[in-house]
Design brief:
The protein is an all-alpha fold and 133 residues long. The chain has five helices and no strands. This is 5HT6R protein.
Length: 133
């Protein structure tokens, strides 16, 4: 048996709100992951089972195999639809870069600001080859 540490009572409504907020986020993340994985298995599992059956007996018609292949491809097209529906952060990030999703009044990021943001460095003073070596 492992001894338990005495549990501490919650520190009022603030800790309950904190717990509630995180449990809602965890529930939403679990739901999103469950939907994505469920759709993946529904779309690709028949393809893989049929692929194994085709290798074993060669009894799967080509048309049926093509339909299952395209079902898997359709799953890949569903991911960009599912992510924005269930993930607010993804929706915000897409809104910054896609003109169709941007709110009016938001400036479009420039290529220079994007490259600086992605390079993990800020603006630097001009350096010559001598200073680098």
């Amino acid at each position: 048996q492992v001894p338990r540490a005495p549990s501490q009572p919650l520190a009022g409504s603030e800790s309950r709100r904190f717990t509630n907020k995180h449990s809602k986020k965890a529930l939403k993340a679990s739901l999103t992951l469950g939907i994505l994985l469920g759709m993946f298995f529904v779309a690709w599992l028949p393809f893989f089972v049929t692929n194994v059956a085709q290798a074993g007996c060669g009894c799967v018609p080509d048309g049926f195999f093509d339909v299952l292949t395209w079902l898997g491809y359709c799953n890949s097209t569903m991911n960009p639809i599912i992510y924005p529906l269930f993930m607010r952060d993804f929706k915000r990030a897409m809104g910054k870069f896609l003109p169709c999703c941007r709110r009016s009044g938001e400036p479009r990021p420039s290529a220079i600001s994007l490259s600086l943001r992605n390079s993990n460095s800020g603006p630097r003073a001009a350096t010559s080859l001598k200073n680098v070596l």
